[in-house]
Amino acid sequence: MAEQHFPDRKWQVISVDIIFTVFCTALAIWRLVVRYRIRPRLWLSDYILIGAILLNTAGNSMGILFAISGQGRLDHDPFLTAEQKRIANRYNFVAAVMNVYAMFLIKLSICSYLLYLNFSKSFRIIIWASAIVVVICNFAIPATIHWGQCRPLAFRWDTRIKGSCWPLAVRLACSYTQAGANIGTDLVFAASPLVYIQQIQLPKRTIWGVRFVFLFAIVGTSLSIAKLFDLRRVLTLKENFLYESVSLSILSVAEVGVGIITACLPPLRKTFDELLSKMMPETVWETYPTEGEGRAQSSHNYAMPVFGFGSKSSNGTTATATSDGESQRAIVREEDMDHTHGALGKTTLITVENIEMQPPGTASRPKP
Question: In the chain, which ranges are continuous DSSP H helix?
């Protein structure tokens, strides 16, 4: 009698874990090297991102062990003994916890980065509000569920132990809150800078670069929405949890991976700026005409000016730096910045003429 074959989906999870771990780690190292070469002092957002990378790597490693231990197999697979299921569920718990906290640090890193750019006051208020939401919904609430839902903690993966857990509805509510926070903050990160760049005249190349960087957050939003629906399906399963949870694990890994990519893109803006110039036609990169310049010239040689690196030329205009400097305020031109407060604003030129008041009935004479 031929031996019965049982499906095994572990390689789907393992391949995704390895790909995202290697790519995200390499991209993060690239960002840190670029930042360090600009100035040998990292920002707070860089240190937070390093923590996120470490947690992501550890979490994906646990995810690989989870797959090797039995994820992707059916309940009636002879490989899944009671002890093997306990081992697999323990790895699942550790991987899920690290995944959530890695996402928390990624969001915090993005908030820290945007706050350092020092845009206008209203924009900073929005980012501070997003940071508070991230701390509450991506750390405080999940931590309560992770460490308080089951007593003792080992009851999560070992039902031989006498214990109890909160109702499933509590865990679902926490998951919905966390997913909603991810979606909301992604939309804030993607939309806020785009709103501001529409208020001033910028070269099209700059606008497309900023759009590409921040709209990439929408990819993470799509993954969060898909994960939300799949999570409810998996948590309400009565059987074959290890087999059916493969899609949820892949979405979770991809969500964190896209978050890391989003956090790494702004400091690497120059590289992607050059990439976009090669991918899109020359007419797209025509700059907006400015006063006194007449027809705008092609912007293939356009380099985003670096905040603090511009110098005054002989005609009183500000020279443009040709390399990225320490501040990524270079997403806009220096003349568009309010140097008094370091904020992004719109400058309006008002001309006041000195007009002599004439007595009533007196004809005005031209002033020599």
Answer: 10-38, 44-69, 82-117, 121-135, 141-148, 168-197, 204-215, 217-235, 241-244, 246-264, 269-279
Single out the residue of 197, 266, 190, 265 nearest to residue 222, CA to CA: 190
pLDDT given for residue 171 in this prediction: 85
Structural tokens at position 123: 């924009």
With beta carbons less than 8 A apart as the criterion, state whether 60 and 17 touch.
yes
Which one-letter amino acid corresponds to residue 201?
A: Q
Phi, psi angle pair for 318, to nearest 5°: -90, 125
Q: How far apart are CA 233 and CA 323, in angstroms?
A: 50
For residue 122, the Cα-to-chain-centroid distance in whole angstroms is 20
The more confident residue out of 136 and 326 is 136
| Rounded-to-integer distance, Cα 364 and Cα 327, Å | 55
Percent of the chain with pLDDT strictly greater than 90: 34
pLDDT category at 324 given cuts 50, 70, 90 is: very low
CA atoms of 23 and 355, how far apart (whole Å): 67
Q: Which 8-state DSSP code applies to residue 351?
A: -
Backbone angles phi, psi at 312, to 5 degrees: -80, 130
Structure tokens of 206?
């700059």
pLDDT of residue 40: 80
pLDDT, residue 320, reads 39
Rounded to whole angstroms, the maximal C-alpha distance in the chain is: 120
Please give the model's pTM, rounded to 2 decimal places. Answer: 0.73
Decide the pairing of beta strands 164-165 and 150-151.
antiparallel
The enclosing H or E element of 343 equals strand 343-344
Is residue 245 packed enough to be buried (19+ CB in 10 Å), middle (13-18) or exposed (0-12)? buried
User: If we measure between CA atoms, which residue out of 173, 166, 179, 65 comes closest to residue 133?
Assistant: 179
